[in-house]
Every structure is written in C-alpha cells, then in structure tokens.
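So, who can interpret the following?
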Amino acid sequence: MISPMQSESFHLELTSLSDPGRVRALNEDAVAVSGAHRFAVIADGMGGHRAGDVASHIALDWAVECLSTLAHAPTAPEFATKIINEANSAIHTKATQELGYKGMGTTLAMAIFGNKRVTLAHVGDSRIYRLRNGQLTLLTRDDSMLNDQIEQGLIAAQDASDSHNRHMVTQALGNHPQVTAHVQEEELCNGDVYLLCTDGLTDLIDEKDIEHIIDALKTNLPLVASHLVQLANDCGGYDNVTVALARVLDTPPPTLAEKSLMQRLFDWLGL
C-alpha cells in the first residue's frame, strides 16, 4: 500500500525522452527535467515552418530559467501561473512582431515537486498522469475542441479517435495576449510515478497500455520512457512524441554498487 510522504526530504527519480516520430522531420516538442530543482516540463509547439519549434523552446527556456530560482520565488502555484503568463507574453510578442512566426503557439505542462506536495500546471492538450497503487489517473483536462464536445454530449468518447477536431486546441501559449493557466496541488505518496506527455503519445496508445508499461517497469524509468516512445512509433509515429517521468520515493534506491548482479539484471529488464 502506498503511503503519504513521511518527511520533508524525499528522493526523486527523473527521466525524459523526445522523438520526432516516423513521419515528421522536425521535432517541435521540447522537454526538460531537473533533479536539483525538482521539476519536469514539456511543451508541444505548433505553427508553420519552424515556428512551433521556436514557440516550444521559448516556453521551455523561460520555465527552466524561472524554476531554477524557485528557492527565491513565491508559493509554487503562484509561481507556476506567473511562469505560464510570462511565457505566453513572450511568445505572443514574438508572433505579432515577426511575420515568420505569426500564429505560432505551444502547449505547456509542468510538475514542481516540494514539501510533500506537487504543483501541476498546464495549458493546451499536453497531459499529466499519475500512477498510484497500480492505477493510472489523468490529472489534467485537455484544452481542446474535442474535449469540449465530449463534455457537452455532442460526441461520444468512444468516437473521439475519429473526430476531425481531435487536434484543435482551444488555447495555447502565444495565441492570445491572455491565457488561463490550469494549476493544482496534491499530496505526494511514496511510490507515485508522474508522467507528462504530448499528444503524440496519447493519440496512439491506450491509457491501459500506458498504465501497464509504467507499472511493470517503474523501477527503471528510462526503460519506461523508451518503451512508451517505441510503442507510439510502432503504432504509426504520426506526430512528435515526448515523455517526462518522475518517481517519488521516501528513501533513495540502492546504488548500482550496492546491488547484486541479479538485481541489476532485474532492473534492466524492468522486473
């Protein structure tokens, strides 16, 4: 049974992986994780030519710079909102002042870990999940036309994969002068695994398959990341696919030197 964190100090394992997929030459996703500053951030850019790539990296670079000074910042929820608003302004300004970047935008999802709690924030349709007690839970709501139609009963959830509106976001960083950041906090529990991902993963892989892969391989996060990305590519790889993973532990796991040969083999296999 997973239990709440017992101390202010906890161990955080992090990994990330981004891939252009099988169809697109340019990867417009961006990702960063930091164990020292305890955060994970992903962005999925959109726009013609290289504009999406520019937008996602503006958002990512701004978030990383700000999160690296979190010790001097206000509370995490306020800080997350500030990051999103300022990144939105920076992208919108560039998009309106430079013709080649007109219409560019990006999603953003981030997790900030600290003091037994995690702050989760997002804009767009990049998602954040949490695996706890073997159960995967979606913690974010897509800013998408498809999601609005499902909630309004205009389309059945089982028909969502065939909808022409599945990739139409209702808000993204840079599209408008103002943006509404979705920010929430929750208590951390020992053994929690958080997944941040772009729609290049969730458009192609069923949530039950994602749940199974994370739960089966959670002691080896790089292996989880590679399996998820590979499966998305095996299913067509129609979009860039990016994942960031964080595992929360009360105490650090044994070092490689402390593990037996058999334990190392099991870790490599994800057993």
